[in-house]
Amino acid sequence: MVLTAVPVLTIGMLGWISMLYLALVHRRRRDWLVLVAVAAASVGGVALIGPSGKDSWQATTGVVLLLGTMVFVPAYFLAVDLRPQPSGGAVPGQGTPVALLAVPPGHPPVGLPRQDRIGQVRAGLDELSAYLEQQERS
Predict the structure, then answer these.
(1) Cα separation of 79 and 34, whole Å?
(2) Secondary structure letter of residue 92 according to DSSP
(3) pLDDT tens by residue, 20-37
(4) What is the number of other CB atoms lying within 10 angstroms of the CB of residue 52?
(5) pLDDT tens digits, residue range 33-79?
(6) N or C end: fewer C-beta atoms under 10 angstroms in the chain?
(7) Residues near 114 by Cβ (< 8 Å), separated by ≥ 6?
(8) Which domain of life is it from (predicted)?
């Protein structure tokens, strides 16, 4: 996904874009707080690098902030974005289901169709397992 590459390609300076997406989609307080922290680290890193000399502690701190943001943001984004949603599909404390916000048009919402799909996959795996066992015996 493009939003995981943005912080890496910009060396952490635009990591807040990925966090803004998460905060808008999931609407959780934690995501808004992470957005503020990442934006502060990005701005602080650039501000510390700008006016300081090459070998100063300010430049070192700024580089560490930007590199930390560059590593943290994609990891956090993938961990939160790929986490399974509750079976009800609603974000706690909100009235709008996440499935309606995050699913592209034409795709079924993540809820009850998801449970049906899991059952289909399990049945297919059971069938494949039985076939492989039969192949091993012969």
Answers:
(1) 13
(2) T
(3) 999 998 888 999 999 999
(4) 15
(5) 999 999 999 999 999 888 777 788 888 898 999 999 999 999 998 88
(6) C
(7) 87
(8) Bacteria
Q: At what angle do helices 57-81 and 29-49 cross, to 10 degrees?
A: 150
* 17 residue type, one letter: I
Is residue 90 helix, strand or coil?
A: strand
Q: Which residue has the tokens 């650039």?
A: 46
Which own/partner contact pairs does 19-26 have at CB distance under 8 Å and 24+ positions apart? 19/73, 19/76, 19/77, 22/77, 22/80, 22/81, 25/98, 25/101, 25/102, 26/80, 26/91, 26/98
